[in-house]
Fold this sequence. Notes:
Elements lengths: L9 E5 L3 H12 L3 E5 L3 H4 L8 E2 L3 H5 L4 E4 L4 H11 L8 E4 L8 H11 L2 E4 L2 E2 L2 H5 L3 E5 L3 H14 E6 L6 H29 L4 H8 L7 H12 L8 H17 L5 H18 L18
Parallel strand pairs: 1-2, 1-4, 2-3, 4-5, 5-6, 8-9
Antiparallel strand pairs: 7-8
Amino acid sequence: MTDQQDRIITVSVLGTGIMGFAMARNLCRAGFDVRVWNRTRAKAEPLAADGARVTDTAAEAVDGAEVVLTMLHDGAATLSAMRAAEPSLRSGTVWIQSGTTGLDGLPPLTGFARERGLSFVDAPVLGTQQPAETGQLVVMASGPATARERAEPVLAAIGRRTLWLGDEAGAGSRLKLVCNSWALAVTHGAAEAMALARALDVDPQRLLDALEGGTLDMPYLRIKAEVIRSDDYTPTFAVDTAEKDARLILAAAERADVRLDLAMAGAERLRRASDHGHGREDTAASYFASFPPAAG
C-alpha cells in the first residue's frame, strides 16, 4: 500500500485482457482489495493466485468497490459491462476508464456516469504489455478534481507517471489518439523497412547497424524488427485491436477536418494483415501486408 493510503481501498477491474490483467495484478501487489471480472472467466482466474477475487458477473465485481477501472476493447463493450454492473454501482464511486474509446465512444460513457452519479475519470494509458506488467504505463487522465484523491493511488500502482490534463473528460482520450497515431506510424515504418530488406535481399541486421546511434535509431524499431526476425508474433498489441484504434484516429481526424494519409494507409495495412490471418498477432504483423497471402 502506498503512503497516500491509510486503509485498504476496494478496486474493481472490468476487463482482464493483455492490459487489464497486468494492471489488476499490479493493483494486487500494491495492496488493494481487487475484484476482477472478464467476459471469458478463464482469462481472469490466474489473478486469484495474486489475491484478486474473481467474479462471475460485473455486478458482483463492483459490489462495494470505491473505484471501478475498466479496460475493455471499445466504448460499446465498456458501456455494456457497466450496464451489467449497474445494480451494484454506488453513487459517488470513482470510475477510471482506461480503454481506447475514441471521441464518439466517450459521450455515452460520460452520460452513463452522470445519470448514475459516478465520478468519471477519462484515463487511457500509453504502453503495451511489458510496461503494463512492470507498472510503467503513462496515464493520460482528465476528470473532476474531486475524484483525483481516490484515483491517484490506483493510477500510481499501474503507471510510472500520470499526466493530469484538466477537469474535462475527453482530454486524455484525445491525447491517446495522437500518441497512437505516432506509435502505429513507427510500427508500419519498421514493418515496411523489414519487408523491403527481404525483397532486396538485404540482411535486416545491416539496417539496424546502419541506424545504430543515429537520430533515426529508436528502441521501438528494434523491438518490432526483432519480432519480425524471430517470427514470434505473440501479441503485446494485436493487429485487430490496432485496426480498431486506427479507425478511431481516422474518425477523429475527419471530425476535425484533418487529412491523415499515413493513418489511412496504416489502417489498410492492418486490415490486409488481418485478412491474411494475422489479426490476433502483434502489430508487427503489419509486415505481412507487404506480401501476397501465400508469401506470408
